[in-house]
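Re: Re: ligand-bound prediction request (bumping)

Still looking for help on this. To restate: I need the protein modeled with flavin-adenine dinucleotide bound, output as structure tokens. Inputs repeated here so nobody has to scroll up.
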Amino acid sequence: MSAPSPSPADADTAQVAIIGAGLAGLALGIRLQAAGMDTLILEQQEDAGGCVGSLRRDSFVFELGPCTVPDLAPLEQLWRLGGAELATDCEFLPLPPLVRFDWPDGRRLDLTGDTEGDRTAVAAFAPADLPAFGAWRSGARSWQLRPAPRFRNSALRDALTSMGLLTDAAPARAQQIAALTGGWAVRGGTDRLIAALVRHYERLGGRLLLRHTVTALSRGPAGTCQIACSNGFSMKEASVASSLGADNTRALLSTPRNSRRQLAPAIFTVHFALRGSWPGIGHHGLLMCDEHHASVRAVRDKGILPARSSIVLSHPSAVDPALAPVGHAVFRASTIVPNLRQAPLDWAAVGPQLERAILAETGQRLIPDLADRLVMAFHTTPADWANRLALPGGTPFGLREPARAAARGLPDNVVLIGAQAGAGAAIPDVLAGAERAASRLLGQLRSAGKG
Ligand SMILES: Cc1cc2nc3c(=O)[nH]c(=O)nc-3n(C[C@H](O)[C@H](O)[C@H](O)COP(=O)(O)OP(=O)(O)OC[C@H]3O[C@@H](n4cnc5c(N)ncnc54)[C@H](O)[C@@H]3O)c2cc1C
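Reply:
Sorry for the wait, this slipped through. Here it is.
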């Protein structure tokens, strides 16, 4: 997947070193290579992808990170910059624009993105909120997050603000990702998108070094940056782009960190495979809990793991049956939980309990014989994300402060990228951040006569 390790002499020629081969690092690398820059990506793991990854086990494919790409346009642009077409490297399947919300008392709301159909559904569910819904919906663009108005019906408000809770998690100004307009799944698993990004980056001359953990950054002569890795590899270059977030990057620079920096809540996910098929359960749904608002506040504001919380249920094999053997299905059920800074829970003990509770709730509400049909189940916790990717507080959803504030005080030629750079951690946010970082770095290198 990656080019062989360059010799130190090769490495010395890189103009920009990028730390982390997640979506942000790869997107930035492609942009800079396409603009004629020489870049090198250093990744601590054996594979690229970071949060994006698919686990293949016994002919099942489980999506560990995102299973929805909200918008293809930023990816298509990356390919066009390099004179290629995204479709030749990666295949996408359109997601039906249907989100189903279920409540414990049996109420159900189906939103499909069809204006008239959704108005009819809301008119039946919460008639007094129809005007507010109409105004909100008409302003929602494809993937964009948008503040939801103050609906009178609390269940409708909870439903329409639930998706953005993972990435922003402020109930009062909670936002709704407009999944109602659909989105895309990567055929065969999202790791194929990562393989395509790596291929495209390397085709443009970029170099990716896997199993290279960056352990220190220092100022070199003439304002250059020096990088040291745990395996002894070292190099110097004009600029560094880091996807490790404000504090981990400061730690590499040995500059003080802000221990009070607020992180978004984290995510707990149960992955499970079942015998049977469920055409009635769409790609994406929410099992709302009655105490939704209070449970989100408990996690976000108090760092408490609530007794009950809403569950985001994804059913990737509904759209791509090849993710499971014939006659089987893969699901994943996620809920927000406190990040490790808010509450250093013993996830080895809490994880199995929460997995049982989520499977029981999903079974009770949607698949009564779930336990009998279970082929396998496993879970991922904030501790797993912290251990595997060194995510601060084990949350993939980054900071609750703007990127500009998080970057304050860093040297000019050290740029933060990715989900950990500031508030906003959906794929389009990360890709837009890579575009901003590319223009900033290109400007710096050109004005220094190095571009
Ligand atoms: C469970 C889950 C579900 C999600 N669902 C969605 C969704 O449906 N839609 C959506 O739009 N977004 C979703 N997201 C968010 C999206 O996946 C992330 O925002 C995005 O993948 C982040 O990319 P990144 O490059 O910023 O960071 P990362 O993916 O975290 O990449 C950072 C990389 O840096 C590497 N690294 C760390 N430390 C070092 C070091 N010292 N030296 C070298 N390398 C290092 C890590 O190994 C990692 O590969 C989801 C995320 C998760 C976890």
